[in-house]
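RECORD TYPE: inverse folding
INPUT: structure tokens
STRUCTURE:
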């Protein structure tokens, strides 16, 4: 069974986090929510989520993928964690999949793991990296890095992750069950 860590920081975008968690679990992927600084994490719209584990309780080598939801100030809180940046660097060196949506590609850039091309929330690219931004895609994979645009595209992003981890058959099954066109 594939294992995915979803890192939650204060101010995360709820749609991006919960959609990813839900859809990956529908694909029978083992998803662990990880609180960066506390077990109970409040999203940017006031939704409180209890994480499965705390950041320092996790062996990140056991995960196939690490996912970073965006949102503000969630992405800033992720980007300011030296420990998280180190985990991302180590995971990248091992070729693990790293995924970030909305403002969270900024975290990948700060960790030095963002590859040549990426997507993020339109207009936010100035906070990520000027070169390499692709405006005409919703989700983009460049080597082991997957980036997505934003909240309305969270399901598309999550389904892309399912396809990446589980293949076309599981992707089509989950997509069909969600009535996603």
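DESIGNED SEQUENCE:
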């Amino acid at each position: 069974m594939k294992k995915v860590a979803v890192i939650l920081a204060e101010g995360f975008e709820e749609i991006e986090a919960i959609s990813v968690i839900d859809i990956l679990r529908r694909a029978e992927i083992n998803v662990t929510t990880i609180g960066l600084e506390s077990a109970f994490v409040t999203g940017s719209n006031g939704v409180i989520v209890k994480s499965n584990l705390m950041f320092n309780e996790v062996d990140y080598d056991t995960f196939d993928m690490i996912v970073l939801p965006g949102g503000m100030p969630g992405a800033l809180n992720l980007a300011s964690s030296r420990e998280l940046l180190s985990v991302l660097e180590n995971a990248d060196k091992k070729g693990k999949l790293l995924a970030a949506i909305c403002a969270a590609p900024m975290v990948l850039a700060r960790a030095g793991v963002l590859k040549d091309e990426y997507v993020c929330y339109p207009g936010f690219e100035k906070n990520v990296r000027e070169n390499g931004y692709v405006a005409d895609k919703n989700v983009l994979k460049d080597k082991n890095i997957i980036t997505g645009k934003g909240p309305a595209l969270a399901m598309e992003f999550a389904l892309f992750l399912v396809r990446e981890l589980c293949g076309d058959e599981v992707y089509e099954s989950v997509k069909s069950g969600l009535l996603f066109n």
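NOTES: The chain has seven helices and nine strands.
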